[in-house]
Amino acid sequence: MIEFEMPKPIAQQNYVLKTVADNMMRPVSRHFDEHEHEIPWDYINFMHMAMRATGAGSLAPRERPKDEKKEEKPDEEKKKRPPIAYQMLAFMLETLSWGDVGIYLVTPGGGLGSAAVEAAGTPEQKQKFLARFAEEKPTFAAMAMTEPQAGSDTSAIRATAVLDKETNEWILNGEKIFVTAGHKALLESQGFVVVWATIDPKAGRAGMRSFVVEAGNPGATVTKLEHKLGIRASDTASIVMQDCRVPFDAMLGSPEIVTKSTKGFKGAMATFDATRPLVAATGIGVARASLELLIETLAAQGITIRYGLPRQKLTNIEREIIDMEVMLRSAWLLILKAVWMADNRKHNPMEASMSKVRAGDVVTKVTQKAVEIMGPLGYSRDLLLEKWFRDAKITDIYEGTGQINRLIVARNIFDYSGSELR
To answer: Which of 8, 139, 148, 332 pairs with 197 at a CA distance of 20 to 30 A?
Structure first.
């Protein structure tokens, strides 16, 4: 059962993160928007130090190994604390994105890359790759799936992985585009990129597997950094793999190759089921920042919202703002349900996609309406509203577009397969 009272650990976390957002993100938000690809090392180093101090390490929730778990005290009155790892992440990402979503995206700790390892890796792989996020220097990880001809249709992936039986290594070839944090993962840290490739081009999704390509691998080259509409502090890279050799055990999950199995593809989808609600939370952070600034600016001009009056007695601006608040809260509730299900190991593909769809719509509408209501001031660079408007749209695009997530929701509602409903 979902509880609406905020757990104490989350409340304490939010208090600290609000201070970070106010003092380390908002003051430099405009600078890093205008100096694209400049890396905010002050923020990165601080967050890395803070996460190491708290034992957070990677941003991917994960269980401690059994030998590290503390034994439960035989106290019948002691209540077992409910799992809240994904819920804590949702609140964390919402607050940091309220500060600046582009800067949040450069937070060390793994992101999609570490989430992919957590979702599809063996216990040994999780220990090997995720432990490095607790080391002294900040580390980044990325996931490379999209290709020039393969965006939402993952069955069209052409990157290949061929096993060299003499050396027992996988040889990767192909190009990946729009890789979030790809530059930092390969060139600015001892990180890695999780690359999705096919071991059997004729098998479609059944042939998909994921491979960890570590920083410094001479076969993986960053060929381009994108210039973007928003989230400019975050690097978005193109990566080419040319005879890129990785160890046999760099394939996530079981090394056994069963070409008729879709386990590899399901590993990718399990990653998205966990992270799509978190991406949705980042959009809500941007929307909340825009709505709060709008209300504060109007209040400074003597315009306040008269809650409790019948709708027909409200001004148009009052109705607009109340509608924006309703959209924001409804989207947040969908996110809370999806992450609660993730914490409790409940199958949540429909809820994860629903939260992503709703958040993508809401952040786009709220930021656009805020700019519209503020008029020339909202369109100018005097406020951050126009930046947040540009930052907003990515919520509806990455980690599955709104159209793809609507398909996922429909398939789950009507119990259709991907081939039956496209």
So the answer is: 139
Distance (Å, whole) CA 264 – CA 154: 12
- The domain segmentation of the chain, as residue ranges, is 264-414
CA distance 233 to 212: 25
Termini Cα distance of the chain = 34
Q: Residue 237 phi/psi, 5° resolution?
A: -115, 160
Among left, alpha and beta (phi > 0; psi -120 to 50; other), residue 412 is alpha
Of the pLDDT bands very low, low, confident and very high (cuts 50, 70, 90), residue 53 is confident
Per-residue pLDDT tens over the stretch 324-350: 999 999 999 999 999 999 999 999 999
CB 81 within 8 A of CB 4: no
CATH number at 264-414: 1.20.140.10
Is 72 one of the catalytic residues? no
Would the pLDDT of 71 be above 60? no
Which listed residue (214, 372, 399, 420) is catalytic? Answer: 399
**DSSP track, 157-175:** ---EEEEETTTTEEEEEEE
Task: Please give the full DSSP string across 253-318, using - where no structure is assigned.
Answer: S-----TT--HHHHHHHHHHHHHHHHHHHHHHHHHHHHHHHHHHHHHHTT----TTS-GGGS-HHH
Give the Cβ contact number of residue 128 at 10 Å.
Answer: 15
Q: Which residues contact 135 (CB under 8 A, 6 or more apart)?
A: 190
